[in-house]
Amino acid sequence: MLMRRTAEEAQRTRASILHAALESFADIGWDATSFVGVGRRAGVTRGAVHHYFADKRALLHTALDEGWSDAMAPLLEALEDARLSGGARLLRFIAEYVIALAGDERFRQLAIISTLVAPQSVDLTVGLAAKEEGMSSWEDGIRSALLDADLRGGLDVDTALSAVLIAIHGFTLTAATQRSRLPADPSDAKLLASATIFGVLV
């Protein structure tokens, strides 16, 4: 019983550190974030942060990887809803993504860190490779939806996929730099999503 409680406490401590890291990287950036500061935000010591993460890069990468994975899981379900057509799945996914970027503070933190902070922390080649790997599950779901949708004449799936991903990257950067431009209202977000895929789907 004691061991289980200790393991649960360790999980909670690690989660608190990751939450604090997202806040810190988003609030003050790569250079100013430190283990001492993250520990202070999480209510733990610098040593506790170091116990879970070897260095600041490991902390950043884990916070981003696990943060995006947790945040995106409900949205990716929209791309897997077999009850909807491919176009409807894509429309719902983009609308819900925009709503999350506009209204969810954790999403905004992830957007800021991904677009503005992470590029400062790693070699560009390594960073691009990691980003591409992280986007693979998104791409698979979007590609599947496009394969089930009616594309505009002359468009192949790869070109349509590129157009959608470019739009998603644009929304993410907008959330980091001009969040007020993103609609938080579901109806407006759906209209924006419709406009986004207008040139892709019939």
Description of the molecule:
It is a single chain. The chain has 202 residues and is an all-alpha fold. It has two domains: 1-53, Arc Repressor Mutant, subunit A (Orthogonal Bundle); 65-197, Tetracycline Repressor, domain 2 (Orthogonal Bundle). The chain is built from ten helices and no strands. Helix 1 (2-32) packs across helix 4 and helix 6 (105-117) crosses helix 9. The longest helix is centred in the N-terminal third of the chain and has 31 residues, at 2-32. The chain is elongated and about 60 Å long. The model has no long low-confidence stretch (mean pLDDT 89).
Question: What descriptors fit this protein?
Answer:
202 residues, single chain, Arc Repressor Mutant, subunit A, mainly alpha, Tetracycline Repressor, domain 2, 0% strand
Beta percentage is: under 5%
* Structural class based on helices, strands and sheet pairing: mainly alpha
Biggest sheet descriptor = none
Top CATH class of the largest domain: Mainly Alpha
Please tally the β strands and state the result: 0
**Count, helices:** 10
- How far apart are the first and last residues' alpha carbons, in Å? 59 Å
Topology order in helix (H) and strand (E) letters: HHHHHHHHHH
Assign the CATH architecture of the largest domain. Answer: Orthogonal Bundle
Can you tell me the residue ranges where pLDDT is under 50 for at least 5 consecutive residues? Answer: none
Mean pLDDT: 89
Question: What is the total number of structural domains?
Answer: 2
The global form is elongated
CATH-derived topology of the largest domain: Tetracycline Repressor, domain 2
Question: What would you report as the Rg, rounded to the nearest angstrom?
Answer: 19 Å
Helix content: over 70%
